[in-house]
Write a structure and sequence with these properties.
alpha+beta, nine-stranded antiparallel β-sheet, five-stranded parallel β-sheet, 20 helices, 41% helix, 20% strand, binds adenosine monophosphate, ligase, GH3, GH3_M, acid-amino acid ligase activity
């Protein structure tokens, strides 16, 4: 039965989005005016606005003044100011270090707004049942107080603790399987166990499965593959494993299951898990959650490598890719939930922040030593972007960032009314570069995918990967190192072929020429032992990160991570891709 309430709410937010997207350009001018008038007195702006009387200016004049006097900036420009105020941590896994960014009531409200909008858009295509449940693999990190008494934590941590998180459940009439005590524990292993336990306990009511980034779902299902017997046991007797030590979490879970022991459900689940084990857990989702309509999570960008695994678990249950945002600001909503994650675009929500776009042009066969892969033009407003062009996003937010370079590269693929639809391309920063070679995360993804096709032929699977540009020995040419964790046994000659395939698959002209002239040495493929990437996750979490925000760094020169990777390397292969090439 569809809820009429849900539909009223849905219609409201959809109508609102149609309105603001039709008038995106003027909405943007008004939003900037609002931000600047609200924050007129702040130290950072005063520096640039000097004697201008911002309060009395009209919105259009203010927009042109702003973009002419306030410079483009990066996080480093704001850091000294941010250190003095309320803080929230970005995941830092894409940048390599955590940044402090302000999180306010407004941030929680925009989060509620985009989640409600996305839910309304999805429910048109995949209607869900009123009062049903969401199996949501979400995690808060630990929060702490600054000297000034302000709370620090990840953006998701703040959101799950906010009123808005409760309102979202009421508004969408879908409720989490896990109570807040589970989400907020700060211990991701214990939380994962309880999410799975309650997800299975409510298995017939689950309408969809979700996580912030799809890595969260993959890692939870890997845990299920290991611990299903123990989980079923808890369902049978209404007990809770001794693995769960946190008193509040025990209390929260036991209050749901202890008076509802369910031997019938436990036996059914056990029989299903036994069958699934025989087929390498193919179709786990529809078998265990027969009413799940879809899987909803961010599957684009650095999450693309996990798609194959999720599809294996989903066996045809639709994958709906989540929306696009950052700790700094939400950006766009997936308005075509029916599209596969590979083709998903995000319609910019013009009320969230003031957006500018730096046009980017790729260097063609450039041999300069500039450590950047793009040439750039002057930033333009949202209303001026063009289809087919790539841009870096610049944000001016309600939380004190002015003309802040986000570092993400997007391509405009079309428009939803007057607002652009963006395809996420990659993080701007080059990740693999030794001299004239320039490779982005996307380039690395493509070559690793090619290598893993060789692996798949040998019935072995790539679990996760990262890379490193080794320049440690100044007497020898630098070279790329790729670390692979694999599932299954592959012969050495297969892995050697994978290594050569990866090396040969880099198309960047700088790399190809450098390899031919041996100014970059042969690529090395290091196979790491099972569980290595879990250790990296543990390291991230131990340093205050939240699982929900974790993105495996696709390239690292972090000494701690390299120490883990090197210590866990069990085999090393060297490419012979360019062996026969004459300089
Ligand atoms: P965080 O630093 O944890 O706030 O992560 C924000 C970053 O995650 C963004 O700047 C993007 O690089 C990436 N990201 C967020 N949403 C998406 C998405 N839907 N698709 C691809 N990448 C995304």
């Amino acid at each position: 039965m569809e809820s009429s309430n849900v539909n009223i709410e849905c219609d409201n937010i959809l109508t609102w989005f149609e309105d603001v997207s039709k008038n995106a350009s003027s909405v943007q001018t008004q939003i900037l005016c609002k931000i600047l008038k609200q924050n007129n007195e702040v130290e950072y702006l005063k520096k640039w606005f000097g004697s201008y009387n911002v309060q009395d200016m009209d919105a259009c004049a203010l927009e042109s003044l702003f973009t002419s006097v306030v410079p483009l900036a990066s996080h480093a420009d704001f850091d000294p100011f941010i250190q003095r105020i309320a803080l929230s941590l970005s995941s830092g896994t894409t940048e390599g270090r955590q940044k402090f960014v302000a999180f306010t009531r407004h941030s929680a409200q925009t989060t509620l707004q985009i989640f409600t909008l996305a839910a309304a858009t999805r429910s048109k295509i995949y209607p869900t049942k009123e009062g049903g449940r969401i199996l949501e693999f979400i995690y808060s990190s630990n929060q702490y107080k600054t000297k000034g008494g302000l709370t620090v934590g990840t953006a998701t941590t703040h959101y799950y603790a906010s009123e808005e998180f409760k309102i979202k459940q009421e508004k969408t009439k879908l409720f989490n399987c896990s109570p807040y005590q589970v989400i907020s524990s700060g211990d991701y292993k214990q939380t994962t166990y309880c999410h799975l336990l309650l997800g299975l306990f409510f298995s017939n009511e689950v309408e969809f499965i979700s996580s912030a980034f799809v890595y969260g779902i993959v890692q939870a299902f890997c845990t299920l593959e290991e611990l299903w017997r123990e989980i079923c046991n808890d369902i049978r007797y209404g007990t809770l494993s001794s693995k769960i030590k946190l008193p509040k979490m025990r209390e929260g879970v036991l209050s749901i299951i202890s008076s509802n022991s369910n031997p019938f459900l436990a036996s059914k689940l056990e029989a299903t898990c036994k069958e699934l084990e025989l087929v390498d857990w193919f179709g786990l989702v529809p078998k265990l959650w027969p009413n799940a309509k879809y899987i909803y999570s961010i599957m684009t960008g650095s999450m693309l490598p996990y798609l194959k695994k999720v599809r294996h678990y989903a066996k045809g249950v639709p994958l709906v890719s989540g929306d696009y945002g950052s700790t700094e600001s939400w950006i766009g909503v997936n308005v075509d939930p029916i599209l596969p994650p590979e083709n998903v675009t995000f319609a910019v929500v013009p009320t969230f922040s003031y957006f500018e776009f730096i046009p980017l042009y790729r260097h063609k066969q450039d041999f300069s030593f500039v450590h950047d892969d793009f040439m750039e033009d002057k930033p333009i407003p949202l209303s001026k972007v063009q289809i087919g062009q790539e841009y870096e996003i610049v944000l001016t937010t309600f939380t004190g960032l002015y003309r802040y370079r986000l570092g993400d590269v997007v391509e405009v693929t079309g428009f939803h009314n007057g607002t652009p639809k963006l395809n996420f391309i990659c993080r701007r920063k080059l990740i693999l570069t030794i001299n004239v070679d320039k490779n982005t995360e996307k380039d690395l993804q493509i070559v690793v995918e090619k290598g893993s096709q060789v692996l798949n032929k040998a019935k072995t699977e790539l679990v996760d990967f990262t890379s490193y540009a080794n320049m440690s020995n100044s007497n020898q040419p630098g070279f790329y190192v790729i670390f692979w964790e694999i599932k299954g046994e592959a012969e050495d000659k297969v892995l050697e072929a994978c290594c050569t395939e990866i090396d040969a698959a880099f198309v960047d002209h700088g790399y190809v020429v450098s390899r031919k002239t041996n100014s970059i040495g042969p690529l090395k493929l290091c196979i790491v032992e099972k569980g290595t990437f879990k250790k990296i996750l543990d390291h991230f979490v131990a340093n205050g990160g939240a699982l929900g925000q974790f993105k495996t760094p696709r390239c690292t020169n972090n000494p701690m991570l390299l120490e883990i990777l090197n210590a866990c390397t069990i085999k090393t292969f060297c490419s012979n891709a360019y062996d026969s090439t004459q300089p």
